[in-house]
TrEMBL record:
<protein>
    <recommendedName>
        <fullName>histidine kinase</fullName>
        <ecNumber>2.7.13.3</ecNumber>
    </recommendedName>
</protein>
<dbReference type="InterPro" id="IPR013655">
    <property type="entry name" value="PAS_fold_3"/>
</dbReference>
<dbReference type="InterPro" id="IPR036890">
    <property type="entry name" value="HATPase_C_sf"/>
</dbReference>
<dbReference type="Pfam" id="PF00512">
    <property type="entry name" value="HisKA"/>
</dbReference>
<dbReference type="InterPro" id="IPR036097">
    <property type="entry name" value="HisK_dim/P_sf"/>
</dbReference>
<dbReference type="InterPro" id="IPR003661">
    <property type="entry name" value="HisK_dim/P_dom"/>
</dbReference>
<keyword id="KW-0418">Kinase</keyword>
<keyword id="KW-0597">Phosphoprotein</keyword>
<dbReference type="InterPro" id="IPR035965">
    <property type="entry name" value="PAS-like_dom_sf"/>
</dbReference>
<dbReference type="InterPro" id="IPR000014">
    <property type="entry name" value="PAS"/>
</dbReference>
<feature type="domain" description="Histidine kinase">
    <location>
        <begin position="677"/>
        <end position="897"/>
    </location>
</feature>
<dbReference type="Pfam" id="PF08447">
    <property type="entry name" value="PAS_3"/>
</dbReference>
<dbReference type="InterPro" id="IPR003594">
    <property type="entry name" value="HATPase_dom"/>
</dbReference>
<dbReference type="InterPro" id="IPR005467">
    <property type="entry name" value="His_kinase_dom"/>
</dbReference>
<dbReference type="GO" id="GO:0000155">
    <property type="term" value="F:phosphorelay sensor kinase activity"/>
</dbReference>
<dbReference type="InterPro" id="IPR000700">
    <property type="entry name" value="PAS-assoc_C"/>
</dbReference>
<dbReference type="Pfam" id="PF02518">
    <property type="entry name" value="HATPase_c"/>
</dbReference>
């Protein structure tokens, strides 16, 4: 049986009814399908059969078979009908509606032409197309699923995008996008590489929520979707697991209507691996995070199926503890520190029995016995029932916390101990509605104020405040609340009624919002310090009065001589008020030399030798020279640097003046003693002059006057006048008052001055002067006239001794030797005579005032005493000794170094 006949048989059955109902004229062949009689030129002669009505009927009699078929069927109908014999002819006829009728048939020769017997094969074709499409669909889905399943998780995003692109291409659409359900709603996972203006996830998301979860939705049916999506012909395909949509695949710009089942199928093939892989990846990451968390926390789970003998430990935790992951309960308990074992046993039993939650802190022993046991927090609860009943929980390493707890409680204990033993009282006041309520006092309150147990009275410290200090207490609270901290000092009553001065340092603590919470403060008992300060103040007051009322000048000044403070007597001397004293420089009243000496003396002050006294000379405003006896005491810092000087001064001007007067009168006395010598000194030139005048007059009377002779006499007279006037001049200089301040001079000048007054007189008395003029001219500091006076005293004394001796010893050749010996630092002037010296017993008394061996009215006994004072004031020394033939007086003076 040929294929055509098989078909015929099948189609015959199908159209049998149609054939019987069709009112067709009887024909030689069964009336099924379509029969077309044509002639040799393929002109259609007649049509028959039920399909005839489905055809576009020929409009004129000469219609050819070719005119009735679709153009592509013309290929089958090439040539003459005779050529088409003995082969299956697949012809697609045009239908009046513009459609196509698919037929297959055979050409049979007929006596008067040809009969074309055709059957409708539309169903057959459709069936084949469906199976082809199903095959393609299967291929598509397996391809998609394989691609998304097989790629690595890192490439999943890229592969998803490529596959989406491929799917969109397959659907002949212009773009596609996949959105997945995320924690934050719908999120685009991949988009085909299209440049379309896709709406954002935030806009799309809510819309997706409204769509039917199990159906494909077309934009053609939904105005909002049309608006929103970038192109027409859009489809939204859900992928659901259970009732929950996990993904939406959106395809836009589809050229032809999509078959919902196929599209949903492809969507599922695409989304399912994607969703499940991402979920698996999420899960994996979550578990990794959990593991890492457990590891870092030193935590892990444990489980004990009550039907089993051993319990199970988290492998990580087991490794940390150094135990197998599966171990029996007794093994487990053996790792618990003996101190905690019983508690652990009881807690486990309770958990097992009553099923109440387990919370226990235990120490677990390490494999290393030496190591300290680690603390673990053990939590657990009962899960399941029957055979499935199990204890489940976790363990957490809390050693760090425990260690910190131990440290914190030790620190707290120390702190509490410190607070309790502190000499200060630490208190806390709670803030409530603008008021402060005492809440806590440290134990030191008892020893300080005697208030013991916290009672009603103790909680109201305001009641202890001294009545006079209550305004201070109220101001303290106000300042504290306003500024957050305060420092005040007031008196508190103790339990015996006595008062204590306390220093209160308080601080207000605030919460996160800046609202006051409590006040923390301390009370320091400063009674002793306050009373000591008061005593000091009183004593200072007394000293101040003492200083202010003292007749002595009292002051403080800096090493630069600037006054810091001075009392009234000092201000009176300086002719200003005490307030004006600070800042005044003391040096301004001193001469340059005085100032230099003063500063030098201060430089000599040290911690070991802080006191120095000197007599200073000042030139005060509108006054003569003032002499002050000045005592300085240096104040030093820790490094021994001079900070300030305290000084007490006494005006010594009067004493000085008296001394000067004494000197003067001594000088005058010397002059008096020298009177005979001086008379001789002046007489001598007068005698010479008188002789010259007498001789000149005689010559004039005799008329024997020559000019040369007169000139000679007058020159002699002139020389004698000069000599006499030199003596008188020097006497005048000598008789003058000494300069106020010491001067620099060469000591030999004084020797020469003394000799100018005495030499002639001595020679006149037959005393030989042995003077050795020195080579060097060294300088000493002092008053030249005073040294001259000393030398005169010595020479006059020598003269007296010599003259006295000569009276007994006529043959004596009296002499006085004056010479100078000098070293680098000292000058010695020696006055020696051959007057027999001083009796050794008297040697130490001769410098006493009023000691004299001379008869009354001759000696004053002051000469040597005054001389000693003068040399001493010059920083030198006057001494006497007996030499070979007489006395030898030695004046030692310090050489003034010019450097
Ligand atoms: P005055 O000359 O008025 O007695 P002085 O003080 O000068 O007072 O001398 C005191 C005494 O020292 C003298 O009286 C004398 O005895 C003794 N004296 C002083 N110089 C000499 C001397 N060169 N030789 C011996 N005795 C002397």
């Amino acid at each position: 049986m040929s294929g055509g006949q098989r078909l015929f048989g099948r189609w015959r059955g199908r159209f049998a009814q149609a054939a019987t109902t069709a009112a067709e004229p009887a024909a030689s062949v069964s009336v099924v399908g379509l029969q077309v009689w044509i002639d040799d030129q393929a002109i259609v002669q007649r049509l028959a059969g039920p399909l005839r009505s489905a055809l576009a009927l020929p409009t004129h009699s000469s219609t050819r078979l070719q005119d009735c078929v679709q153009p592509y069927s013309l290929l089958v109908l090439e040539g003459e009908p005779a050529d088409w014999q003995a082969q299956a002819l697949d012809l697609d006829f045009k239908t009046p509606s513009g459609g196509t009728l698919h037929t297959r048939g055979w050409l049979q020769a007929q006596p008067d032409g040809w009969l074309l017997q055709l059957f409708d094969i539309g169903d057959l074709l459709q069936h084949r197309q469906q199976s082809v499409r199903a095959e393609r669909q299967r291929h598509l889905t397996s391809h998609l699923a394989a691609a998304l399943r097989d790629c690595s998780i890192e490439c999943l995003g890229r592969v998803a995008q490529e596959q989406l692109q491929w799917l969109v291409h397959h659907w002949r659409a212009s773009g596609g996008r996949i959105l997945l359900r995320g924690e934050a709603g719908w999120q685009t996972y991949a988009t085909s590489s299209d440049p379309l203006p896709w709406p954002s996830d935030e806009v799309l998301g809510p819309l997706l929520g409204r769509l039917a979860p199990g159906q494909m939705t077309s934009s053609a049916d939904d105005a909002e979707l049309r608006e929103l999506l970038p192109q027409a012909g859009a489809y939204l395909l859900p992928y659901a697991q259970g009732h929950c949509v996990q993904a939406w695949l959106i395809c836009v710009g589809a050229h032809e209507a999509m078959v919902a089942a196929d599209a949903l199928n492809a969507c599922a093939a695409y989304a399912e691996p994607l969703v499940s892989r991402l979920a698996a990846f999420d899960l994996q990451q979550q578990s990794e995070r959990l593991d890492s968390l457990q590891l870092q926390l030193g935590a892990g789970w444990w489980q004990w199926r009550l039907s089993e003998a051993s319990l199970q430990l988290d492998p990580g935790l087991a490794a940390t503890l150094g135990v197998p992951a599966r171990l029996t309960v007794s093994q487990c308990l053996s790792r618990v520190h003996p101190a905690d074992r019983e508690a652990a046993q009881l807690a486990l039993a309770e958990l097992q029995r009553d099923g109440c939650a387990l919370h226990l802190n235990v120490r677990l022993l390490d494999n290393n016995v030496q190591a300290n046991p680690r603390w673990y927090r053990l939590c657990g609860q009962v899960r399941g029932s029957g055979q499935q009943r199990r204890l489940q929980g976790f363990m957490l390493d809390i050693s760090d916390i425990k260690f910190q707890q131990v440290q914190a409680s030790a620190a707290q204990a120390r702190l509490e101990n410190l607070i309790a033993s502190s000499p200060a009282v630490i208190y806390i006041q709670r803030y409530a509605e603008g008021a402060l309520q005492a809440e806590f006092f440290s134990a030191s309150l008892q020893p300080m104020l005697g208030w013991g147990a916290v009672g009603e009275e103790v909680l109201q410290p305001a009641q202890w405040v001294h009545p006079e200090d209550q305004p201070i207490w109220l101001a303290r609270t106000r300042t504290l609340l306003r500024e957050g901290q305060v420092r005040s000092r007031y008196r508190l009553r103790d339990h015996l009624g006595g008062y204590h001065w306390v220093l209160d340092e308080a601080r207000l603590l605030r919460d996160d919002l800046g609202l006051p919470v409590e006040v923390v403060g301390i009370w320091l008992d400063v009674t002793e310090a306050t009373e000591a300060a008061e005593r000091t103040r009183l004593s200072e007051e007394r000293y101040r009065v003492l200083v202010e009322d003292s007749p002595a000048m009292i002051c403080r000044y800096t090493p630069e001589l600037n006054l810091v403070f001075g009392n009234q007597p000092l201000a009176d001397y300086l002719e200003c008020s005490t307030a004006q004293l600070p800042g005044i420089n003391l040096g301004q009243w001193m001469s340059a030399a005085q100032r230099e000496a003063f500063v030098e003396r201060l430089a000599g002050l040290s911690v070991e030798q802080p006191v120095s006294t000197a007599e200073i000379c000042l030139t005060l405003p509108g006054r003569e020279h003032a002499w002050w006896v000045w005592a300085d005491r240096g104040l030093f810092d820790e490094q021994g640097r001079l900070l300030e000087i305290q000084a007490v001064g006494r005006d010594n001007t009067q004493v000085r003046r008296t001394q000067q007067q004494l000197l003067q009168s001594a000088k005058m006395a010397t002059l008096g003693e020298m009177a005979t010598g001086l008379a001789h000194e002046i007489n001598q030139p007068l005698n010479v002059m008188r002789m010259a005048v007498v001789n000149a007059l005689k010559r004039l009377e005799n008329g024997d006057v020559q000019a040369d002779y007169l000139q000679d006499k007058l020159k002699r007279i002139d020389a004698q006048v000069q000599r006499a006037s030199r003596v008188v001049d020097h006497m005048r200089v000598f008789g003058r008052r000494s300069e106020v301040e010491q001067q620099l001079f060469a000591p030999w000048q004084a020797v020469e001055g003394a000799l100018s007054l005495l030499a002639e007189g001595l020679r006149g008395k037959g005393v030989e002067l042995r003077v050795e003029t020195p080579a060097q001219a060294l300088m000493v500091s002092g008053h030249q006239d005073q040294l001259e006076q000393v030398l005169i005293n010595l020479m006059v004394n020598a003269r007296d001794a010599l003259l006295a001796r000569r009276e007994q010893q006529r043959e004596l050749n009296p002499w006085i030797a004056v010479r100078m010996q000098a070293s680098e630092r000292q000058v010695q002037l020696l006055v020696e005579d051959n007057g027999g010296g001083i009796e050794p017993r008297l040697l130490e008394r001769i410098f006493e005032p009023f000691f004299t061996t001379k008869p009354v009215g001759v000696g004053t006994g002051l000469g040597l005493s005054v001389s000693y004072g003068i040399i001493d004031a010059m920083g030198g020394c006057l001494s006497a000794e007996n030499a070979a033939e007489g006395a030898c007086f030695r004046i030692e003076l310090p050489v003034h170094s010019t450097s």
